[in-house]
Amino acid sequence: MKRLGLLIMTLLLAGCTPWIEQEKEVPPSLFDYEGSYVGSPMSTKNILALLPDYGLKWKNMRLETDKEPYGIHLYYEKAEPAIAREAARTYSLYLLRLITNADIVTLHSDTTQYRYTREQWENWLGLPLEKYTTEEQLEQAMQMKLEEDPDREGLAESS
């Protein structure tokens, strides 16, 4: 009987202890990777994982780190050219903004490639990419620029 009473008391006390809410893990955001370097493939993959996938099927990646300008090559299975171009624009903008020493991003899809440089983006947006300190600022600048140049004629991919 004493054991039963002790068990009941233990359960009652356990039920009366305040609930300690555990901290919820905050998922990473794009700007958590700000200051990454081309030589860090995990940072590049983590950035890409946070961007829209556009339905592209990933093949691999090659990083050019031997000499400047440093570059990132992204390889995907064959994709609709318009979709691959839009993915290349989005990926290049964010990779060039977040990866400090990246100068060129090239997306390869089957026999097509889309290449964008830091200089192209800065000329098109009108400011150095580092001036955009949040994802919201970068998206807002893109929206404003797209209103002026909806076809992005001033941002033609280079070869």
TrEMBL record:
It comes from the Bacteria. Residues 30-116 form the DUF4825 domain. It comes from Chryseomicrobium palamuruense. This is DUF4825 domain-containing protein. PROSITE patterns: PROKAR_LIPOPROTEIN. InterPro entries: DUF4825 (IPR032250).
